[in-house]
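Suppose you are handed a protein chain with no further information: no name, no annotation, nothing but its sequence. What can you learn? This example shows the usual starting point.
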Amino acid sequence: MPSARLIVDRDFAISDIDRRIFGSFVEHMGRCVYTGIFEPGHPTADAQGFRQDVADLTKELGVSIVRYPGGNFLSGYNWEDGVGPAAKRPRRLDLAWFSTETNAFGANEFIDWTRKVGVEPMFGVNLGTRGIDQARRFILETHGAHGVLGPGIKVVRPMPARAAAPSRQSDRACRSPR
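A reasonable first move is to predict its three-dimensional structure. Written in structure tokens, the prediction is:
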């Protein structure tokens, strides 16, 4: 009969662990952004509308890097809608979640929030419904405005929001070049 033996020695290390593996993402879904990290008027909100209780929990969890925007929201996101004065940003239908996106929280607010909670920012770029030139412009805009450029650039393979039925999405993903 085969057997196995496991020896655990907490003082034996193969290598250091990159802190970035303790990362997360922020998506405009449910309560993640609005009534989550950003809720002006909340009893714990600061002058920018960031909830201190959520900031404290983020620090307690030891999150090291956060990608924005994240998840399905990214597949239909226009970065231009989330920069500049919040009062001038357009309201849009978010095709991933079929909800109204106010764009009150965008790239500017994300950078401010990451500085507040002490995490490294990572920007996702929409290559699904946009293109490489739009991604380049977004990187240049955020770099110029905030002095941030990489390693936080995540390229997501094209997958427009609700582009295919779930069973077809997996077929398409398997055929996509890696």
